[in-house]
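Page 37, continued from 36.
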Protein backbone atom coordinates (compact mmCIF):
# COMPACT_ATOMS: atom_id res chain seq x y z
CA UNK A 1 0.00 0.00 0.00
CA UNK A 2 2.79 2.36 0.90
CA UNK A 3 4.66 1.33 -2.21
CA UNK A 4 1.70 2.06 -4.47
CA UNK A 5 1.25 5.48 -2.97
CA UNK A 6 4.90 6.20 -3.39
CA UNK A 7 4.81 5.16 -7.03
CA UNK A 8 1.81 7.39 -7.58
CA UNK A 9 3.63 10.27 -6.07
CA UNK A 10 6.69 9.62 -8.19
CA UNK A 11 4.79 9.42 -11.47
CA UNK A 12 2.56 12.42 -10.70
CA UNK A 13 5.32 14.82 -9.71
CA UNK A 14 6.64 15.57 -13.25
CA UNK A 15 3.18 16.76 -14.45
CA UNK A 16 2.95 20.62 -14.65
CA UNK A 17 0.01 22.26 -13.04
CA UNK A 18 -2.62 23.33 -15.61
CA UNK A 19 -3.02 27.01 -16.55
CA UNK A 20 -5.80 28.80 -14.84
CA UNK A 21 -9.11 28.31 -16.66
CA UNK A 22 -9.80 32.01 -16.64
CA UNK A 23 -6.70 32.91 -18.72
CA UNK A 24 -7.48 30.43 -21.54
CA UNK A 25 -11.08 31.60 -21.88
CA UNK A 26 -10.17 35.31 -22.06
CA UNK A 27 -7.61 34.72 -24.86
CA UNK A 28 -10.10 32.77 -26.95
CA UNK A 29 -12.92 35.33 -26.57
CA UNK A 30 -10.64 38.27 -27.55
CA UNK A 31 -9.68 36.58 -30.83
CA UNK A 32 -13.31 35.92 -31.80
CA UNK A 33 -14.39 39.53 -31.05
CA UNK A 34 -11.62 40.98 -33.24
CA UNK A 35 -12.65 38.94 -36.27
CA UNK A 36 -16.34 39.70 -35.79
CA UNK A 37 -15.70 43.41 -35.44
CA UNK A 38 -13.64 43.46 -38.65
CA UNK A 39 -16.36 41.66 -40.63
CA UNK A 40 -19.07 44.03 -39.40
CA UNK A 41 -17.00 47.12 -40.28
CA UNK A 42 -16.27 45.88 -43.80
CA UNK A 43 -19.93 45.09 -44.43
CA UNK A 44 -21.01 48.57 -43.39
CA UNK A 45 -18.22 50.12 -45.50
CA UNK A 46 -19.30 48.28 -48.64
CA UNK A 47 -22.94 49.15 -48.06
CA UNK A 48 -21.97 52.81 -47.72
CA UNK A 49 -19.98 52.80 -50.99
CA UNK A 50 -22.84 51.10 -52.83
CA UNK A 51 -25.30 53.72 -51.53
CA UNK A 52 -23.04 56.58 -52.68
CA UNK A 53 -22.68 55.09 -56.17
CA UNK A 54 -26.42 54.50 -56.39
CA UNK A 55 -27.10 58.12 -55.36
CA UNK A 56 -24.72 59.48 -58.00
CA UNK A 57 -26.29 57.36 -60.71
CA UNK A 58 -29.75 58.47 -59.64
CA UNK A 59 -28.80 62.16 -59.81
CA UNK A 60 -27.08 61.71 -63.17
CA UNK A 61 -29.91 59.89 -64.91
CA UNK A 62 -32.62 61.95 -63.22
CA UNK A 63 -31.17 65.31 -64.37
CA UNK A 64 -29.98 64.19 -67.81
CA UNK A 65 -26.56 64.84 -69.35
CA UNK A 66 -27.61 67.73 -71.56
CA UNK A 67 -29.77 70.07 -69.49
CA UNK A 68 -28.95 73.75 -69.30
CA UNK A 69 -28.92 75.50 -65.95
CA UNK A 70 -32.02 77.60 -65.31
CA UNK A 71 -30.63 79.53 -62.39
CA UNK A 72 -30.87 82.81 -64.25
CA UNK A 73 -34.65 82.89 -64.23
CA UNK A 74 -34.77 82.76 -68.02
CA UNK A 75 -38.39 83.11 -69.16
CA UNK A 76 -37.61 81.03 -72.23
CA UNK A 77 -36.49 78.14 -70.03
CA UNK A 78 -38.58 78.46 -66.86
CA UNK A 79 -41.96 78.31 -68.57
CA UNK A 80 -44.93 76.28 -67.40
CA UNK A 81 -44.90 74.16 -70.54
CA UNK A 82 -41.27 73.24 -70.06
CA UNK A 83 -42.23 70.81 -67.33
CA UNK A 84 -44.15 68.75 -69.87
CA UNK A 85 -42.18 69.35 -73.07
CA UNK A 86 -38.70 70.81 -72.60
CA UNK A 87 -37.55 73.38 -75.16
CA UNK A 88 -34.72 72.30 -77.46
CA UNK A 89 -31.46 73.19 -75.80
CA UNK A 90 -28.51 74.45 -77.88
CA UNK A 91 -26.13 72.79 -75.41
CA UNK A 92 -27.91 69.44 -75.49
CA UNK A 93 -25.90 68.37 -78.53
CA UNK A 94 -23.30 65.72 -77.69
CA UNK A 95 -20.73 68.04 -79.24
CA UNK A 96 -21.24 70.62 -76.49
CA UNK A 97 -20.07 68.57 -73.57
CA UNK A 98 -20.83 69.53 -69.96
CA UNK A 99 -24.40 69.27 -68.65
CA UNK A 100 -24.81 72.62 -66.92
CA UNK A 101 -22.56 75.31 -68.30
CA UNK A 102 -20.15 74.77 -71.12
CA UNK A 103 -16.48 75.37 -70.36
CA UNK A 104 -14.64 77.18 -73.14
CA UNK A 105 -11.21 75.57 -73.55
CA UNK A 106 -8.12 77.76 -73.81
CA UNK A 107 -4.58 76.91 -74.74
CA UNK A 108 -1.81 77.78 -72.32
CA UNK A 109 0.98 79.86 -73.81
CA UNK A 110 3.58 78.58 -71.30
CA UNK A 111 6.25 81.02 -72.60
CA UNK A 112 7.13 82.89 -75.77
CA UNK A 113 8.65 80.45 -78.26
CA UNK A 114 7.04 77.39 -76.69
CA UNK A 115 5.97 74.79 -79.29
CA UNK A 116 2.96 72.52 -78.89
CA UNK A 117 2.00 69.57 -81.07
CA UNK A 118 -1.62 69.63 -82.26
CA UNK A 119 -3.67 67.38 -84.54
CA UNK A 120 -5.85 69.26 -87.03
CA UNK A 121 -6.15 66.78 -89.91
CA UNK A 122 -5.86 62.98 -90.00
CA UNK A 123 -2.38 61.47 -90.11
CA UNK A 124 -0.60 64.78 -89.58
CA UNK A 125 0.73 66.77 -86.64
CA UNK A 126 1.07 70.55 -86.75
CA UNK A 127 3.38 72.67 -84.61
CA UNK A 128 1.90 75.67 -82.81
CA UNK A 129 4.33 78.27 -81.50
CA UNK A 130 3.54 80.84 -78.81
CA UNK A 131 4.22 84.38 -80.07
CA UNK A 132 3.06 86.32 -77.01
CA UNK A 133 1.28 85.85 -73.68
CA UNK A 134 -0.51 89.21 -73.68
CA UNK A 135 -2.50 88.64 -75.80
CA UNK A 136 -2.40 84.85 -75.92
CA UNK A 137 -1.17 84.60 -79.51
CA UNK A 138 -0.09 81.54 -81.51
CA UNK A 139 1.35 80.80 -84.95
CA UNK A 140 0.71 77.59 -86.95
CA UNK A 141 2.83 77.17 -90.12
CA UNK A 142 1.38 75.16 -93.04
CA UNK A 143 -2.16 75.49 -91.74
CA UNK A 144 -3.30 75.66 -95.37
CA UNK A 145 -1.71 74.10 -98.43
CA UNK A 146 -0.70 76.17 -101.45
CA UNK A 147 -3.62 74.71 -103.38
CA UNK A 148 -6.10 75.63 -100.64
CA UNK A 149 -4.81 79.19 -100.57
CA UNK A 150 -5.27 79.45 -104.33
CA UNK A 151 -8.84 78.13 -104.17
CA UNK A 152 -9.87 80.59 -101.44
CA UNK A 153 -8.48 83.51 -103.43
CA UNK A 154 -10.26 82.37 -106.60
CA UNK A 155 -13.56 81.89 -104.77
CA UNK A 156 -13.25 85.42 -103.39
CA UNK A 157 -12.63 86.76 -106.88
CA UNK A 158 -15.63 84.85 -108.17
CA UNK A 159 -17.85 86.21 -105.42
CA UNK A 160 -16.61 89.75 -106.07
CA UNK A 161 -14.79 92.10 -103.69
CA UNK A 162 -16.07 95.45 -102.47
CA UNK A 163 -14.22 98.51 -101.23
CA UNK A 164 -13.54 98.69 -97.49
CA UNK A 165 -13.85 102.46 -97.31
CA UNK A 166 -15.16 103.43 -93.87
CA UNK A 167 -17.25 106.58 -93.50
CA UNK A 168 -19.10 108.27 -90.67
CA UNK A 169 -22.18 106.47 -89.37
CA UNK A 170 -25.49 108.10 -90.28
CA UNK A 171 -27.09 106.29 -87.36
CA UNK A 172 -24.74 108.11 -84.97
CA UNK A 173 -25.82 111.47 -86.42
CA UNK A 174 -29.47 110.57 -85.92
CA UNK A 175 -28.79 109.58 -82.31
CA UNK A 176 -27.06 112.92 -81.76
CA UNK A 177 -30.12 114.80 -82.97
CA UNK A 178 -32.41 112.75 -80.74
CA UNK A 179 -30.24 113.24 -77.64
CA UNK A 180 -29.98 117.04 -78.11
CA UNK A 181 -26.87 117.30 -75.91
CA UNK A 182 -25.56 120.67 -74.75
CA UNK A 183 -21.86 121.60 -75.14
CA UNK A 184 -21.41 121.13 -71.38
CA UNK A 185 -22.86 117.62 -71.52
CA UNK A 186 -20.65 116.65 -74.43
CA UNK A 187 -17.61 118.18 -72.71
CA UNK A 188 -18.21 116.12 -69.54
CA UNK A 189 -18.77 113.04 -71.65
CA UNK A 190 -15.39 113.42 -73.37
CA UNK A 191 -13.49 114.54 -70.25
CA UNK A 192 -12.51 111.05 -69.08
CA UNK A 193 -10.44 112.12 -66.07
CA UNK A 194 -12.81 114.98 -65.15
CA UNK A 195 -10.02 117.52 -64.76
CA UNK A 196 -11.90 120.30 -66.55
CA UNK A 197 -9.74 120.13 -69.68
CA UNK A 198 -9.77 117.96 -72.77
CA UNK A 199 -6.42 116.39 -73.62
CA UNK A 200 -5.47 115.04 -77.01
CA UNK A 201 -5.59 111.50 -75.67
CA UNK A 202 -9.18 111.89 -74.45
CA UNK A 203 -10.51 113.14 -77.77
CA UNK A 204 -8.44 110.67 -79.76
CA UNK A 205 -9.84 107.85 -77.60
CA UNK A 206 -13.32 109.08 -78.45
CA UNK A 207 -12.52 109.05 -82.16
CA UNK A 208 -11.23 105.46 -81.88
CA UNK A 209 -14.60 104.42 -80.48
CA UNK A 210 -16.50 105.75 -83.48
CA UNK A 211 -17.35 103.05 -85.99
CA UNK A 212 -14.89 103.01 -88.85
CA UNK A 213 -13.25 106.34 -87.94
CA UNK A 214 -9.71 107.04 -86.88
CA UNK A 215 -8.09 110.32 -85.87
CA UNK A 216 -4.41 111.12 -85.45
CA UNK A 217 -3.20 113.82 -83.00
CA UNK A 218 -2.05 116.09 -85.83
CA UNK A 219 -5.53 115.80 -87.33
CA UNK A 220 -7.02 117.06 -84.09
CA UNK A 221 -4.68 120.03 -84.16
CA UNK A 222 -5.91 120.76 -87.66
CA UNK A 223 -9.49 120.86 -86.38
CA UNK A 224 -8.55 123.23 -83.56
CA UNK A 225 -6.75 125.56 -85.96
CA UNK A 226 -9.56 125.53 -88.50
CA UNK A 227 -12.23 126.31 -85.93
CA UNK A 228 -10.01 128.64 -83.87
CA UNK A 229 -11.01 126.75 -80.77
CA UNK A 230 -7.57 126.64 -79.14
CA UNK A 231 -6.01 130.13 -79.42
CA UNK A 232 -3.15 129.40 -77.00
CA UNK A 233 -2.14 126.30 -79.06
CA UNK A 234 -1.43 124.23 -75.96
CA UNK A 235 -3.36 121.21 -77.18
CA UNK A 236 -5.87 121.50 -74.32
CA UNK A 237 -9.47 122.60 -74.48
CA UNK A 238 -11.18 124.29 -71.56
CA UNK A 239 -14.94 124.44 -71.35
CA UNK A 240 -14.89 128.03 -72.62
CA UNK A 241 -12.76 127.04 -75.62
CA UNK A 242 -14.94 124.03 -76.20
CA UNK A 243 -18.04 126.25 -76.42
CA UNK A 244 -16.50 127.92 -79.47
CA UNK A 245 -17.12 124.69 -81.30
CA UNK A 246 -20.68 124.08 -82.37
CA UNK A 247 -22.41 120.98 -81.02
CA UNK A 248 -22.11 119.38 -84.43
CA UNK A 249 -18.35 120.00 -84.55
CA UNK A 250 -17.88 118.78 -81.00
CA UNK A 251 -19.38 115.40 -81.68
CA UNK A 252 -18.61 114.86 -85.36
CA UNK A 253 -15.23 116.52 -85.56
CA UNK A 254 -13.68 113.65 -87.56
CA UNK A 255 -15.93 114.58 -90.49
CA UNK A 256 -13.95 117.86 -90.86
CA UNK A 257 -10.80 116.03 -91.88
CA UNK A 258 -9.75 114.77 -95.26
CA UNK A 259 -10.63 111.20 -96.19
CA UNK A 260 -7.03 110.00 -95.84
CA UNK A 261 -6.96 111.12 -92.23
CA UNK A 262 -10.18 109.34 -91.37
CA UNK A 263 -9.99 105.97 -92.93
CA UNK A 264 -8.86 103.07 -90.79
CA UNK A 265 -8.09 101.14 -93.97
CA UNK A 266 -6.71 102.13 -97.34
CA UNK A 267 -6.49 100.31 -100.69
CA UNK A 268 -8.36 97.33 -99.36
CA UNK A 269 -11.17 95.21 -100.77
CA UNK A 270 -13.01 92.33 -99.13
CA UNK A 271 -15.78 89.77 -99.44
CA UNK A 272 -17.50 87.11 -97.31
CA UNK A 273 -17.59 83.37 -98.04
CA UNK A 274 -20.14 80.98 -96.57
CA UNK A 275 -18.59 77.84 -95.04
CA UNK A 276 -21.61 75.69 -94.15
CA UNK A 277 -23.18 72.76 -95.95
CA UNK A 278 -23.19 73.21 -99.71
CA UNK A 279 -20.08 75.41 -99.66
CA UNK A 280 -16.89 74.48 -101.47
CA UNK A 281 -15.08 71.56 -99.88
CA UNK A 282 -12.02 73.70 -99.12
CA UNK A 283 -14.12 76.21 -97.21
CA UNK A 284 -15.82 73.45 -95.23
CA UNK A 285 -12.46 71.80 -94.50
CA UNK A 286 -11.10 75.13 -93.29
CA UNK A 287 -14.04 75.61 -90.94
CA UNK A 288 -13.57 72.07 -89.59
CA UNK A 289 -9.88 72.74 -89.05
CA UNK A 290 -10.67 75.92 -87.10
CA UNK A 291 -13.06 73.92 -84.91
CA UNK A 292 -10.31 71.43 -84.10
CA UNK A 293 -7.82 74.24 -83.51
CA UNK A 294 -9.99 76.20 -81.08
CA UNK A 295 -11.45 73.01 -79.49
CA UNK A 296 -14.81 74.78 -79.30
CA UNK A 297 -18.19 73.08 -79.82
CA UNK A 298 -18.98 72.94 -83.57
CA UNK A 299 -22.27 74.79 -83.04
CA UNK A 300 -20.48 77.87 -81.70
CA UNK A 301 -18.16 77.91 -84.71
CA UNK A 302 -20.96 77.28 -87.22
CA UNK A 303 -23.05 80.18 -85.87
CA UNK A 304 -20.14 82.64 -86.12
CA UNK A 305 -19.37 85.06 -88.94
CA UNK A 306 -18.55 83.72 -92.42
CA UNK A 307 -14.98 83.72 -93.69
CA UNK A 308 -13.81 87.21 -94.64
CA UNK A 309 -11.27 87.38 -97.47
CA UNK A 310 -9.32 90.64 -97.82
CA UNK A 311 -7.04 91.95 -100.56
CA UNK A 312 -4.54 94.73 -99.86
CA UNK A 313 -2.94 96.56 -102.77
CA UNK A 314 0.27 98.56 -102.62
CA UNK A 315 -0.01 101.16 -99.85
CA UNK A 316 -2.81 99.27 -98.15
CA UNK A 317 -2.86 99.22 -94.36
CA UNK A 318 -5.20 99.00 -91.37
CA UNK A 319 -4.68 101.11 -88.27
CA UNK A 320 -4.44 99.32 -84.92
CA UNK A 321 -7.77 98.32 -83.42
CA UNK A 322 -9.53 95.67 -81.32
CA UNK A 323 -11.60 93.04 -83.12
CA UNK A 324 -14.01 92.76 -80.19
CA UNK A 325 -15.63 95.36 -78.01
CA UNK A 326 -15.52 96.01 -74.27
CA UNK A 327 -18.19 94.58 -71.99
CA UNK A 328 -20.67 97.09 -70.58
CA UNK A 329 -24.16 96.53 -69.11
CA UNK A 330 -25.66 98.97 -71.62
CA UNK A 331 -23.99 97.30 -74.62
CA UNK A 332 -25.25 94.29 -76.57
CA UNK A 333 -23.40 91.97 -78.92
CA UNK A 334 -24.03 92.50 -82.62
CA UNK A 335 -24.68 88.82 -83.33
CA UNK A 336 -27.20 88.24 -80.51
CA UNK A 337 -28.92 91.62 -80.24
CA UNK A 338 -31.73 91.06 -82.74
CA UNK A 339 -32.23 87.38 -81.96
CA UNK A 340 -32.79 87.92 -78.23
CA UNK A 341 -34.63 91.24 -78.68
CA UNK A 342 -32.20 93.20 -76.54
CA UNK A 343 -33.40 96.74 -75.81
CA UNK A 344 -29.95 98.34 -75.39
CA UNK A 345 -29.18 101.15 -77.81
CA UNK A 346 -25.53 100.32 -78.35
CA UNK A 347 -23.96 97.23 -79.84
CA UNK A 348 -20.44 95.95 -80.32
CA UNK A 349 -18.88 92.95 -82.08
CA UNK A 350 -18.28 90.11 -79.64
CA UNK A 351 -15.42 88.09 -81.11
CA UNK A 352 -13.91 85.69 -78.64
CA UNK A 353 -11.22 84.40 -81.03
CA UNK A 354 -9.60 85.76 -84.19
CA UNK A 355 -7.96 83.40 -86.70
CA UNK A 356 -5.98 84.99 -89.56
CA UNK A 357 -4.82 83.02 -92.61
CA UNK A 358 -2.09 84.31 -94.88
CA UNK A 359 -3.03 83.30 -98.43
CA UNK A 360 0.18 84.53 -100.06
CA UNK A 361 3.66 85.69 -99.12
CA UNK A 362 4.60 89.35 -99.56
CA UNK A 363 7.90 90.90 -100.55
CA UNK A 364 7.98 93.94 -98.32
CA UNK A 365 5.71 95.35 -95.60
CA UNK A 366 2.22 94.16 -94.83
CA UNK A 367 3.10 92.69 -91.43
CA UNK A 368 0.45 92.15 -88.76
CA UNK A 369 1.53 94.33 -85.85
CA UNK A 370 0.69 94.07 -82.17
CA UNK A 371 1.88 97.42 -80.76
CA UNK A 372 1.55 96.62 -77.03
CA UNK A 373 2.01 92.83 -77.00
CA UNK A 374 3.51 91.65 -73.69
CA UNK A 375 3.73 95.18 -72.28
CA UNK A 376 3.81 95.31 -68.50
CA UNK A 377 0.84 97.69 -68.40
CA UNK A 378 -1.72 99.07 -70.82
CA UNK A 379 -2.62 102.77 -70.80
CA UNK A 380 -4.38 104.79 -73.47
CA UNK A 381 -2.11 107.79 -73.02
CA UNK A 382 0.97 105.63 -73.53
CA UNK A 383 -0.18 104.93 -77.09
CA UNK A 384 0.92 108.43 -78.10
CA UNK A 385 4.68 108.91 -78.03
CA UNK A 386 6.40 112.10 -79.19
CA UNK A 387 3.25 113.23 -80.92
CA UNK A 388 2.90 110.00 -82.91
CA UNK A 389 0.23 107.43 -82.11
CA UNK A 390 1.16 103.76 -82.00
CA UNK A 391 -2.21 103.16 -83.58
CA UNK A 392 -0.99 104.84 -86.76
CA UNK A 393 0.42 101.94 -88.76
CA UNK A 394 1.56 104.31 -91.50
CA UNK A 395 4.03 106.09 -89.23
CA UNK A 396 4.77 103.87 -86.25
CA UNK A 397 4.46 100.28 -87.43
CA UNK A 398 8.15 99.70 -86.76
CA UNK A 399 7.65 100.79 -83.13
CA UNK A 400 5.26 97.96 -82.35
CA UNK A 401 6.36 95.27 -79.90
CA UNK A 402 5.55 92.37 -82.24
CA UNK A 403 5.19 92.04 -86.01
CA UNK A 404 4.24 88.88 -87.92
CA UNK A 405 5.37 88.63 -91.54
CA UNK A 406 2.78 87.12 -93.92
CA UNK A 407 3.84 83.67 -95.16
CA UNK A 408 1.58 81.66 -97.43
CA UNK A 409 -0.30 78.91 -95.59
CA UNK A 410 0.53 80.19 -92.10
CA UNK A 411 -2.23 80.94 -89.63
CA UNK A 412 -2.14 82.98 -86.44
CA UNK A 413 -4.87 83.08 -83.81
CA UNK A 414 -5.40 84.85 -80.53
CA UNK A 415 -7.98 85.33 -77.79
CA UNK A 416 -9.60 88.77 -77.80
CA UNK A 417 -11.04 88.22 -74.32
CA UNK A 418 -9.72 86.97 -71.03
CA UNK A 419 -11.43 84.15 -69.15
CA UNK A 420 -13.98 85.07 -66.51
CA UNK A 421 -12.44 82.48 -64.17
CA UNK A 422 -15.45 80.18 -64.58
CA UNK A 423 -14.76 78.91 -68.07
CA UNK A 424 -16.67 81.56 -70.00
CA UNK A 425 -15.85 84.83 -71.78
CA UNK A 426 -14.38 87.56 -69.58
CA UNK A 427 -13.19 91.12 -70.07
CA UNK A 428 -11.65 92.40 -73.31
CA UNK A 429 -7.91 91.75 -73.48
CA UNK A 430 -6.67 95.23 -74.29
CA UNK A 431 -3.30 93.80 -75.35
CA UNK A 432 -5.03 92.25 -78.40
CA UNK A 433 -4.68 95.63 -80.12
CA UNK A 434 -3.42 94.92 -83.66
CA UNK A 435 -3.24 96.34 -87.18
CA UNK A 436 -1.68 95.89 -90.61
CA UNK A 437 1.46 97.70 -91.69
CA UNK A 438 1.68 99.47 -95.03
CA UNK A 439 2.18 97.07 -97.94
CA UNK A 440 5.27 98.33 -99.76
CA UNK A 441 5.03 96.19 -102.89
CA UNK A 442 2.70 93.76 -104.57
CA UNK A 443 -0.60 92.36 -103.27
CA UNK A 444 -1.49 90.82 -99.94
CA UNK A 445 -4.30 88.28 -99.49
CA UNK A 446 -5.55 87.31 -96.02
CA UNK A 447 -8.65 85.63 -94.61
CA UNK A 448 -10.25 86.10 -91.19
CA UNK A 449 -12.38 83.74 -89.11
CA UNK A 450 -14.01 85.31 -86.05
CA UNK A 451 -15.65 83.14 -83.40
CA UNK A 452 -18.61 85.05 -81.97
CA UNK A 453 -19.55 84.36 -78.34
CA UNK A 454 -21.66 86.61 -76.13
CA UNK A 455 -20.09 87.22 -72.69
CA UNK A 456 -23.63 86.92 -71.30
CA UNK A 457 -24.05 83.14 -71.16
CA UNK A 458 -27.85 83.12 -70.93
CA UNK A 459 -28.11 85.53 -73.85
CA UNK A 460 -25.87 83.30 -75.97
CA UNK A 461 -28.00 80.28 -75.03
CA UNK A 462 -31.25 82.00 -76.02
CA UNK A 463 -29.68 83.15 -79.28
CA UNK A 464 -28.70 79.59 -80.15
CA UNK A 465 -32.21 78.33 -79.34
CA UNK A 466 -33.65 80.71 -81.92
CA UNK A 467 -30.98 80.51 -84.61
CA UNK A 468 -29.97 76.84 -84.61
CA UNK A 469 -33.32 75.55 -86.05
CA UNK A 470 -33.16 78.17 -88.81
CA UNK A 471 -29.67 77.02 -89.68
CA UNK A 472 -30.97 73.48 -90.15
CA UNK A 473 -33.64 74.75 -92.55
CA UNK A 474 -31.03 76.58 -94.57
CA UNK A 475 -28.99 73.42 -94.88
CA UNK A 476 -31.98 71.64 -96.44
CA UNK A 477 -32.29 74.25 -99.17
CA UNK A 478 -30.51 73.53 -102.46
CA UNK A 479 -31.09 76.83 -104.24
CA UNK A 480 -27.86 78.37 -103.06
CA UNK A 481 -25.93 75.23 -103.99
CA UNK A 482 -27.36 75.26 -107.52
CA UNK A 483 -26.38 78.91 -107.92
CA UNK A 484 -22.81 78.14 -106.91
CA UNK A 485 -22.59 75.22 -109.29
CA UNK A 486 -23.76 77.35 -112.22
CA UNK A 487 -21.34 80.14 -111.27
CA UNK A 488 -18.44 77.74 -110.91
CA UNK A 489 -19.12 76.24 -114.32
CA UNK A 490 -19.04 79.70 -115.89
CA UNK A 491 -15.90 80.51 -113.97
CA UNK A 492 -14.24 77.35 -115.29
CA UNK A 493 -14.89 78.51 -118.83
CA UNK A 494 -12.39 81.30 -118.20
CA UNK A 495 -9.73 78.63 -117.62
CA UNK A 496 -9.65 79.06 -113.85
CA UNK A 497 -9.87 75.58 -112.46
CA UNK A 498 -11.44 75.07 -109.05
CA UNK A 499 -11.13 71.53 -107.88
Amino acid sequence: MMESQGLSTIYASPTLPPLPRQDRVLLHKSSVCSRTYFVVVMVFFHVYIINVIALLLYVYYNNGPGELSTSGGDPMINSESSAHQPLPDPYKSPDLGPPVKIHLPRFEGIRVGHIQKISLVPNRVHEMRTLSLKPLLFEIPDFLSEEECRVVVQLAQLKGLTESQNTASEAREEELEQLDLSPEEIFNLLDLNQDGQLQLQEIVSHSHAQGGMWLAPEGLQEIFAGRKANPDHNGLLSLEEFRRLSTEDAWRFPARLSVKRLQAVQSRRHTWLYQGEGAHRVLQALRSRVTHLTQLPPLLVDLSEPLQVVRYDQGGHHHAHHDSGPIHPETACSHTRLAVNTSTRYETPCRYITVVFYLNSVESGGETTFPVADNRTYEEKALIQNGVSLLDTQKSCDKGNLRVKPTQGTAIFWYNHLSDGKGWVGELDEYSLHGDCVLAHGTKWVANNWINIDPDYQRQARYQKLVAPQQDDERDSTEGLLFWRISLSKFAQHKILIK
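The mean pLDDT is 74. Flag for discussion at group meeting. The first strand starts at residue 115 and ends at 118.
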